[in-house]
Write a sequence for this structure.
């Protein structure tokens, strides 16, 4: 199966893109990775050249190896990027990735610890998603009831099949399940009517009003909430992996995901350790994928960071606020 990988970034999240790409390649991914972005391209992408073969205005391509192409796609949207995921995936499947049989979206603060064939096999079981740190959400939880009531006003019926509440940082599916992306996009647009537009989110930028930021509000996590709503609505099969998948609990971590701040590329090992916070699995995975086919740091700097990582991890066994 030929599938496409994609991500979205702006500002210094390009450091996360580097580690994501390196980790994908290390685990056997070959072909094209589509990188949607706002703002300017980072210095490490200086070799990217205009690519008129890509059906995307302003597309540039950089090939760090003969068997991997990074396609940088400038975005013309006022949406917060966290709310642009289903739109981006649909635009890719209907455009530059028209020949892909499946697609995976990764947030740029994720690295991949799973073999490429594992990912391919995963989407054979349905829409691939991972349980969030805030899961479970019981089948008739008030939050779910609020979703059903809101979308019921638009004639959309929903019913939870599982108590899992999934993370919005990763989604994979086969092309034949493209209707799921259309539904997710539709639910996002309807949600936008409630929160003041899809340019708003819980993340830095144009932030949600306090009433919507309340954890008890139905759409405090915007795209993630509507992803879970789309899972309630769909009759398609869904393949869940638990919290261990993203490193939120002990177990086999295949997609280490950095939540909150600081992000791994901004992690100050000594300062965090003084606070009683040793490096977690997402920080460790980042620094072991920071250099690869893409190199944004000097070799000596990465070695230095890995020494600090081991030192902080060792001390963290004895000194932690947990």
């Amino acid at each position: 199966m030929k599938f496409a990988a994609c991500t979205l970034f702006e500002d210094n999240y390009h450091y996360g893109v580097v580690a994501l790409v390196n980790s994908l390649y290390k685990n056997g991914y070959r072909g094209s990775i589509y990188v949607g972005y706002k703002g300017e391209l980072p210095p490490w992408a200086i070799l990217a050249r205009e690519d008129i073969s890509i059906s995307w205005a302003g597309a540039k391509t950089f090939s760090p190896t003969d068997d991997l192409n990074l396609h940088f796609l400038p975005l013309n949207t006022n949406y917060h990027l966290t709310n642009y995921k289903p739109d981006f995936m649909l635009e890719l499947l209907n455009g530059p990735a028209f020949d892909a049989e499946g697609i995976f979206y990764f947030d740029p603060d994720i690295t991949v610890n799973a073999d490429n064939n594992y990912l391919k096999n995963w989407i054979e079981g349905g829409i691939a998603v991972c349980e969030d740190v805030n899961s479970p959400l019981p089948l008739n939880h008030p939050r779910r009831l609020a979703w059903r009531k809101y979308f019921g006003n638009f004639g959309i019926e929903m019913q939870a099949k599982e108590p899992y509440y999934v993370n919005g940082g990763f989604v994979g599916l086969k092309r034949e399940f493209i209707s799921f992306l259309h539904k997710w996009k539709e639910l996002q647009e309807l949600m936008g009517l409630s929160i003041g537009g899809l340019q708003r989110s819980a993340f830095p930028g144009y932030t949600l009003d306090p009433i919507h930021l309340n954890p008890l509000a139905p759409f405090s996590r915007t795209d993630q909430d509507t992803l879970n709503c789309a899972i309630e609505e769909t009759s398609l099969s869904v393949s869940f992996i638990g919290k261990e998948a993203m490193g939120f609990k002990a177990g086999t971590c295949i997609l280490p995901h950095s939540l909150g701040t600081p992000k791994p590329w901004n992690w100050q090992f000594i300062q965090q350790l003084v606070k009683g916070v040793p490096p977690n699995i997402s920080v460790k995975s980042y620094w072991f994928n920071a250099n690869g086919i893409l190199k944004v740091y000097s070799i000596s700097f990465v070695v230095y960071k890995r020494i600090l990582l081991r030192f902080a991890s060792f001390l963290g066994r004895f000194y932690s606020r947990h």
Remarks:
- The chain has ten helices and eleven strands.
- The chain has two domains: 3-246, 264-316.
